[in-house]
Structure formats: structure tokens, C-alpha cells
Amino acid sequence: MLSRESETVEFKKTTAQLKEGVISLCAMLNKHGEGTVYFGVKDDGSIAGQHVGKKTTSDISHEIRTNLKPLPDISIDIHSINDKTIIAVQAKGTDTPYSAYGRYYTRVDDADTYMDSNQLLRFFESKDTTYSTWEEQSSGCGIDTVNEDLLIQYIRTANDAGRMHYIFNNTSEALNKLNLIANDGQLNNAGHFLFGNDGPVLLKEVMYPTDDRRDFADLKQYHGNILECIQEGMRYIENNIRYSARIDGLQRTETPEIPIRAIREIIVNSFAHCRYQKGDSNAITITQSRVTVYNPGGLLHGTEPRDFASGRVGSKIRNPLIAAVLFKNGMIDAFGTGFDRTFKACAESGVEYSYRNDEFGFTFTFARKSTEASRTIPGRSERLRNDTDRRIMELISKDQYITTTELAEHIGVSRPTIARHIKGLTERGVLERVGSRKSGYWKALY
Question: Which positions, given as ranges, span the membrane (predicted)?
């Protein structure tokens, strides 16, 4: 016989009560950060026994993974007591609040209670207040896990933006300059997610040819750090939206159906204000009539984007260290002004938009213009005619100062081949060289 139920222990007679067990795990996680549900145990603690088949534990695991969000650390153990089998399911996690089947619960003694809107609001506001300490905690990753080339490029861009005055000397010094080293000498979480070379961030990208979202035309899961994911998100949208062309004399001008500066603001915002926790991911979805950008972790509760755009409230930053790094290299222009610039850009271009902010995250949707509205040309992806073109643009997007020799070495072709492809990209209006051969840089025109 086991002891009584409590705020961290729950008994279920059989796995027929699996849904109720998942709700109990959710409630205990929100109250104490851990909890255990025993299957095969009666309410009074006496052992009833639980049949365990080939799929029993996998069914339990699947039910939890499908319906408990975000996913905590789970262990499932089988024990024998008095020749009877019981199953112990333990959950641990700090990424509160957790939801089960789309609802939030907390634990009061041995009962699971639904959190009403006021409780949930206070919970989120309390979490937002303390969440930034996550950035400062050690990631356990050493400085040798940093993408040094990306860091050097970042320092160069931040200096060009006039927001840093620092000549790169070594990785450790640069990271200290950006406050990205934890007390133990390892990367803090902000540093790991910004510059880690092990793909700590997941960006899901999907494109559907129609609005019914039945069959996808493209599906991609991109793993990178924050800076890489921002660039990837920009590329994905720009490559797959439509452009209108206008000839003015000898000059050909291409205009995207959605203003690039508005896309950029929303993409950067989605990573600056994201909740980086296990099981969550940013997402970009493109359909025939919409482009949607989603990030886990909503805005300050009780506010909406227009409050920030109007200046009625200041910008409450979920990740101040990450936001500061994005500010220094010019990705964030000024705190709290991104929505204002987005709304103005959309108004100037006649682009409609909508947004949703809830306990799960923030979703911003751009309405695409009808293909009948104007003559259109393909997105940039159709102007990159082969893999070499694509590799050149990918490398330039990561380092605009890269040389033709370095491009040839990375791609594994000769310099004349690189020169030939660059000539074609320039003629098709995809790429431009700014400045001299020695001190200039590449500019992607998309």
C-alpha cells in the first residue's frame, strides 16, 4: 500500500484514466514543477494492479507528448508490489505554465483545479517578470561551441551601424563585451541561442499552394541559432512571395507584394520575444492568400500591438540580453517601435494584416495580394537557376564581405566559375556589389 495522494502524488486505478492522469501532471507541474501519477493504485493507496502490454508505455508517452504543452522531462517506470504491477509516470519541468488538452490547471491538495482567466493572467505576468533570468543562466556549452565566423560578422555589422566601437580580438573577449558569458565561464543561454553552432533554435517553414492547407508544396525544418534563423525566415518569405515589375526608362523596378521592411520587423520581433523552451518552435506558414509568422510566448498580457505602436505602453522585453544584441547590429531599430513601422509600411503598400496574442504565443498574418491585381513575376527562388546560385546567395547572406576566393573554396568550384555565376546573378537583379573590390561588400537585392 502506498501513502496518500498529495500535491505531488496522484493515484489512478487503470490507464483508462490516462487523460485525467495527464491533467494531474499538468496541475502538479504548474504548482511544484514536478509530480508523479501511479497507474494501478486505488484512491486509498491500495494496489489494484495494472496490465502492461506491448504498447502500454508507448501509448502513455504518446498521450503525454501530444497533449501536455510544453513537453516536460518524463520518465515511465514499471514496479512490482505484492506480485502486482503498477506504472509510475513522473514529470519534471520549469517551463511553466503547462497546459493539458488546451487548458491550464493547478493543484490544491490532491485535486486538480482549472485556472480561471485572472489566475492565468497573474501566472503569466509573474512568469514574464522572472523569465529574463533564464538568459543569464549557464547553458553548459563552452565558448568553443560558438560560430566564430558569425560572431566576427556580427561585430563588423554592429560597428558599421555605429552601435559598437570594438575591434574583434578573440571570441571570449567579444562575448564578454556582449554580456553573453555566465558566471561559470560557459556561454549563458542568451549567448548559446544567439551564436551556438549546434542549431539550438527550430524554425518550421511550410508553403501550401491553396488556402485549404491540404497538400503542402514545401516543408522545411531549419535548425540554427537566432541570427541564422532570422536570415532563414527572411529568405523563405522573400523567395516565395510575388513581385510586381515596373519599367521606368531603362530601369526595371521590382516591388514585393508585402513590404520587406514589414516582414523584417515581424521576423525579428518573433525571435526577440520568443519563449525558448523545449518542445516549442517558431513557424512560418505561406498559403495562397496569407503569410503567417508565429512565435511561442505572447506579448505582455492586457496589451496588444497597437498599444506599443501608439506609445501608450513601453516595450516590455521578454529577453533583454537577446534584444540588446539584436539592437547593436541594427536588427532592432528602437525598442517598442517595430509594430509602428510595420503598420505604416503595410498602410503605404495597401497590405492588410491581422494578429492574435494569447497564452500560447503571438501570430502575425499578412494578407497577400491577388495575382489578378497586377502583373507579377516569380519570387527570388525562381531567379536562382541552380545549386551554385543558391549556395552563393546563402554564403553572402551569412557574410556580405566574403571574397570570390572564399566562395570558390566553400562551394568547391573555380574562381572563374564563381565570377560567371555572380555576373548572372547581377544581371538578373538578385545581387549587387557595393564599393570597391578590396573594401566593398555584397548586397542581396530581394
Answer: none
Instruction: Give residues with Cβ within 8 angstroms of 269, minimum separation 6.
Output: 295, 338, 339, 364
| Residue 291 identity (one-letter amino acid) | V
- pTM of the complete model: 0.61
How far apart are alpha carbons 364 and 290 in whole angstroms?
Answer: 10
Query: In the chain, what are the domains?
Result: 9-115 (3.30.950.30), 201-380 (3.30.565.60), 383-444 (1.10.10.10)
Q: How far apart are CA 308 and CA 293, in angstroms?
A: 19
Q: How far is CA 153 from CA 157, 235, 319, 323, in A?
A: 6, 18, 22, 18
> Can you tell me the distance from the alpha carbon of 258 to that of 243, in angstroms, rounded to the nearest whole number?
9
Cα separation of 216 and 208, whole Å? 4
Backbone angles phi, psi at 96, to 5 degrees: -65, 155
| Each residue's pLDDT tens digit, 204-258 | 999 998 998 888 888 999 999 999 999 999 999 998 998 887 766 666 677 889 9
